[in-house]
Each structure stands twice: as C-alpha cells, then as structure tokens.
Amino acid sequence: MNERFDHCETNTSAFRLAALLILLLSILHPAGAQEDSEAFENAPFFYRIEDVRRYFTWGFNLIPTGIDVTAGYHLPPWFDGVESILQATVGGGYEGLGTFRDFDYTPNTVEEDAADPSGNLEFNSPNIQWQMGLRQGIVWNPAEERNLLEAFLYYRGRYDRYLNGRHYWGSGDGEIAAIEASHQAWQSAYLGSDAYGIFGNSLFTGLSYDALHLNRRSKAYDGTYAEASFEFSPYLPSVMGASDFWRVNFSTRTFWTLYQARPEAPKNVFTIYAGSYFSIDYADARRQMPLYVMQTFGGTELREGLADSVRGFEKHSWDTQLKIVHNFDLRFNLPVLFSFRGRDLLPGFVVYFDLGYGALYWHDPANTPGGFLGSTGIGLFLDLLDFTSAHVYAHFPLIGERIDGAPVALDLAIRVHF
Fold first, then answer.
1. What's phi and psi for 293, nearest 5 deg?
2. Quick count: other Cβ atoms within 10 Å of Cβ 350?
3. Do 146 and 138 contact (CB within 8 A), yes or no?
4. Which strand (E) or helix (H) includes residue 281?
5. Which pLDDT does position 156 carry in this prediction?
6. How far apart are CA 192 and CA 181, in angstroms?
7. HSE on the CB side for 222, CA within 13 Å?
8. Which CATH architecture describes the domain 4-414?
9. What is the secondary structure of 341-354 as a DSSP string?
C-alpha cells in the first residue's frame, strides 16, 4: 500500500516530540465512557482526555497530531439529588479530510468512479473544535453515582482550513501538479461556502440517559446509553464557510455480558459480551450545508458518516442528509497480558454485522437515489491500558458496493467502533 504525505515542509524533530508527548499523555491519563465516580464525589474539578487526533500514513490514520480534552466543574446543586455540571471540550490537530462530491454537489458513484478513479478529493486540514455548556441532572443513578437522566445545552464552534491536496508517496512532479490543479479547480468552482474551510458556530441541546456499567476487571459493558439532540447553526454571512444548517439525532447503544470464565479471578480470563448501536440522523439547510455535517452523525460526540459507520466502505462516500445505522458486535475479551499501574493490556477479537441506509444528497442536481449498505467482518483488538484500543479489521461488504469495487477491505482503527 502506498503512503500519502503532506506536501509541505515540517519541522521533523518538533513533530516527533509532539507525537511522543501526546502518546505519553494518552497512557498516563486514560479516558473512558464513564467518569470516575469517586473522583467526582471528592473533587469539584475534573478533566479527561477524549481522543488523540491522527494523520494518514502507511495506509492508516496513525501519526498523532493533536488531542481533545474535556474539563468540568461541579456547581453547587441546583436541585436536590442530582448534579449540575459546567463542562468544556477543546481539541485540535492536523488531519486529512476529503469528499466524493463534485463541485456542483453531484456524488461520485461506483459507475462514475470507473470512468474517473480520481473523482474523490482529499486534502489536508488544521482543525480546532470547542464545545462548552451545562449538563443538568434530572434523575440520579445511585448504582453508578452519577446522573441517570440529564439535559444539556452547549455552544459549539470549529475552525477547519482546507489546504493543499494529498497525494501518494513517490508521486512524480507531474502527478503532484495534476492533483494540486484538480484540488484548486474544485475549490474555485465548488458551490458551497466552505470550499476553503469553515468557522462554524452552533447551539446544541438535548437529553441523555446513561445506565451503562463498565466491569473494570473484564472490560465488558452492560446496560444502555441513549440520547436525543437538536443542533442549529445561525447564518453569519461575514464568517468563512457561513452556513445555516439544523440537525436532529437519536442514538442508543446497549451491551449484554453473555459469559464470564472464572469471575472470581482477579484479572479477566475470558469474557463474551454483545453490543448494539443504533443512530438516526437528519440534517437540512436553507442556504448552505457544511461538508462536515453531511459527513457525520450528530450527538454529543460527532461520529463518522454512513460509509464509515457501516464498516468496510470508503469514508465520506455516502454523505446524505438522512443517515440510519445499526451496528452489532460480538466481542471476546481474552486473558490479560500484563498490568501497569492497575491498568491492563488485554487482547481480544470481535465479529460484527452492520446495516445502514442513506438518502437525500443535499443540492444534488442528479437527485441520486438513496440505498442500503451492509457489511460483516472480524477484527483483532488490543485494549491499551484502559485508555484506548487498537483494532485490525477485515471487512466484507454484503449490501452495496465499495466505490473501488474491492470485495474485502483491511483497516486499522484506534478506539472501539462504539
């Protein structure tokens, strides 16, 4: 597999140092789906690392380029028995983005790709995102010592700057010039307001229900998390990438532990658990719809769009207004390899089945019909000291077709799919 790279000069030593610091922080400060209830009870302030931004190399998003951090403060309770929390998340990095849309919003289909294999556009983008607001408890969860049902209200912002086109390592000067010319031509002709980037602003609100429980010994989840949300971006014509989209989303994930070998053992021996994730997302706009909205599922954590949520298809290739996805995982957690400071290195494997549906390409002049996507696959994973996990997948499309026509796709992912 060829390697892609950023066609600009960088300070290699500084880049390596930044990557090393990010990795060290990642190991020393694990993030999880659940906050540490004991820390919450004893300290008004909290923080956690949510994710590490990565850039494409060796065929995968591997090189750390940034980080996302959440910090919060427990206000004096506004209502008895529940928590009121001020919370902010800030993150940034240098990432590779792309689109399968032509400059007039026409999506690149399997048939079009056969005639023009370079129809998809890829580019580099510095990205900064921030979110700040209030989480207000409504019902308390005594088992987990946190809010069971809560309302949230956030102001969201982001800055993306779409730079030069990305190309393959070893590309000749002529190929590089052609890629840059294609990228510049697309930016000049693109009908959207965010051809060169976006300074986005939106209000985001909703309700969440959190009854998840993480067994820290087996690394298996039980219970349900669900949220319903609404996001609105006012039209600010003077800012880069001005848009006026709105989006509604409902998402839920549920887990069941099916089997545990020797539950009395101090460390995991063998555990089987199942997970189900469902999300439905609809977005629209009166004047302008940003690329990133078409390419993501909404919610408190933005999730990749339909063709990445249904594993095995090209990222950004199904950026529809209506997106529906269901993921089902059967996960097998194997014995712990070793522990460090109370955190475990735990291997395992997963078998999955995904199904999705997408329709309505915003402003598509060809009115391209929607359709279903489905896939199955198997993956190996390694839980990295409770911070994150690395996954190697073999994906097999069952419903729908990859744009490149491949019957199987290999993938490396950082973080569990849901």
1. -70, -40
2. 19
3. no
4. strand 270-285
5. 96
6. 19
7. 14
8. Beta Barrel (2.40)
9. TTEEEEEEEEEEEE
Structure tokens at 337: 């390899």
Distance, in Å, from the CA atom of 146 to the CA atom of 302, rounded to the nearest integer, reads 23
Could you tell me which residues are beta bridge partners of residue 255?
Answer: 223, 275
Nearest to residue 371, comparing CAs of 304, 303, 313? 313
- Give the pTM: 0.84
> Which 3-state string (H, E, C) describes 34-81?
CCCHHHHHHCCEEEEEEEEEEEEECCEEEEEEEEEEEEEEECCCCCCC
Alpha carbon 403 to its chain centroid, in Å, reads: 21
Q: Which two tokens stand for residue 367?
A: 């009115």
What is the band of 204 on the pLDDT scale with cuts at 50, 70, 90?
very high
Residues counted in the chain? 418
Distance CA 316, CA 291 (A): 9
**Residue from 257, 265, 258, 261 nearest 344 by CA:** 265
Rounded to the nearest integer, the mean pLDDT of the chain is: 84
C-alpha triplet 384, 17, 1: angle, nearest 5°: 65
Cα–Cα distance measured from residue 61 to residue 212, given in angstroms and rounded to the nearest whole number: 29
Name the residue among 20, 15, 96, 21 with its Cα closest to residue 54: 96
**How many other C-beta atoms are found inside a 10 Å radius of the C-beta of residue 10?**
10
Amino acid at 189: A
Q: Is 24 helix (H, G, I), strand (E, B) or coil?
A: helix
365 confidence band (pLDDT: 50, 70, 90): confident
Distance separating alpha carbons of residues 154 and 120, to the nearest angstrom = 34
pLDDT, residue 59, reads: 58
